[in-house]
Amino acid sequence: MNVAIYGAKVTKDNIRYYQELLKNLESRGWTPVLYDELKEKLVKKVGIGVDCDVFSSYKDLQSGIDLSISVGGDGTFIRNVKFVRDSGVPVMGINTGRLGFLSNIYKDKIEHAIELVSEKKYEHQKRSLLRVETEQNLFSDDNLAFNEVTLQKKDTASMIMVHTWLEEKFINSYWADGLIVSTPSGSTAYNLSCGGPIVTPGCQVHILTPIAPHNLNVRPLVVPDHMPIKLQIEGRSRTYLISLDGTSLSIKQNEIVYVHKADFMINVIKFEENNFLDTIRKKMSWGEDTRNIKLK
Asked: Which domains does the chain have, with CATH numbers?
């Protein structure tokens, strides 16, 4: 079994988790394949992973890989998804960061998680992605987003207008600081911070959430994910920002942006003990009310 391992940082605090992970894989006869920059850091700092094969592009994971593991926080998990793409390789995240909403394997449960995988005591939770097209092909083939795509102002304090269509039918012109188009996975990220709804994984929808809108009668909108969304920015500036999962580029005024559901899904490993509703209660204190403590 070949296991791709992705991580962005190697620090004195997380080195032991890389060591434990590699030890567990090798004890089972599984072959670790390290992200090339991660291998360089591990070899340089602690001298481990010297004999491991490496990957550097999503093309390297298209075949021959059975499992992909990220070590870090949710941002690391999302960056790892960009390597997995349409390979069908299942993804698991070990949390050494803060929130650990997507990377939900506790760092002291590595051996337990690997044991569950070896015994096939898991299921694949399907997660959708966004595919973004622009007139200038700004993101090239890196045009996928796991959480959200955001259009927002760049060099001005003035609000902008984001004209929006669903399947070529006009929805609204959002007068705001920007607009978020989110997947169900991204509903608990930037979308949530801007007052958008939490959507459970598996729902086949996209969420449109304005950022600081100047209209009291404008609310987030949930739409079917099979319908393409068209966006166009208008405002006082010549350039604005378009972001895919936090990776931002400049976009010109009036340039058309199309947002589609990607034609493949990501297989996220889900153990029986990991429940979405439990996670949002534990990680985000969702629904917490001190008046109900005595009733539990």
From this structure: 2-127+265-290 (3.40.50.10330), 130-261 (2.60.200.30)
